[in-house]
Amino acid sequence: MKLTISINDDLMKEIESYCKENYIAKSTFLSMTANEYLKQYKVVKALLNMNKSLELIAIKENPTKKDLQNLKEMQVLIKLLTEENK
């Protein structure tokens, strides 16, 4: 499939340089980066859903202090991982 897009000149120079150094076509690079971005998006979405589930379990069950600490640690990790994707 062909696609026409606009890219910032400086970014395009970086892409061209990377592709030249790594012997890959620009279209291949853009396809690879789009694919990786979508994979990361799916992981982030799954982590956020897992966080919601863990919070619901903690509310409905009778969590120990250790369980609550584990939940807090998971929330910190999820926040760190998802902040970069905004």
Describe this structure in words.
The structure is a single chain. 79% of the residues lie in helices and 0% in strands. With 86 residues, it is mainly α. It has one domain (9-83). Helix 2 runs antiparallel to helix 3. The longest helix is centred in the middle third of the chain and has 35 residues, at 26-60. It is elongated, with a radius of gyration of 20 Å. The two termini are 28 Å apart.
Write the layout of secondary structure elements.
Layout: H1 9-22, H2 26-60, H3 65-83
Strand content: under 5%
Run of helices and strands: HHH
What is Rg? 20 Å
Q: Into which percent range does the helicity of residues fall? A: over 70%
End-to-end gap: 28 Å
Give the total of domains.
1
On the 0 to 100 scale, the average pLDDT is 85
Low-confidence stretches: none
DSSP strand tally: 0
The assigned structural class equals: mainly alpha
Shape: elongated
Number of helices: 3
The largest sheet is: none
Outline of this structure?
This protein is mainly α.
What are the defining features of this structure?
86 residues, mainly alpha, 79% helix
